[in-house]
Amino acid sequence: MTDALAIEIFRKALFTALLVAAPMLGVALIVGIVVSVIQTATSIQEQTLTFIPKIIAVLFSIIYFGPWMLRLVVDFTVALWSSFPYLIR
Question: How many CA atoms are closer than 13 Å to the CA of 86, on its beta-carbon side?
């Protein structure tokens, strides 16, 4: 295995991890901004109010995007395992 091949495998793994995390992070970001705007408009400055809506939104995003995320990770894993005979040479 060459250095370039190891870097390519690491690059693909990092890109897969970013793709899997992106929906949850995006939903948490949007919900956090909405809750912050509501808190600013109502002058409620309680820091703990943002956690429950974010947790619920991330849970629903995992339920909604879960099959896609699982398929993405499984495809990456299968491709990695199937390429082992070529990597060992």
Answer: 8
pTM of the model: 0.80
Task: Map tokens 């990695």 to a residue.
Answer: 80
Q: What domain count does the chain have? A: 1
Is residue 12 over pLDDT 90?
yes
Written as one string, the DSSP assignment of the chain is --HHHHHHHHHHHHHHHHHHHHHHHHHHHHHHHHHHHHHHHHT---GGGGHHHHHHHHHHHHHHHHHHHHHHHHHHHHHHHHTHHHHH-
Q: Which domain holds residue 16?
A: 3-88
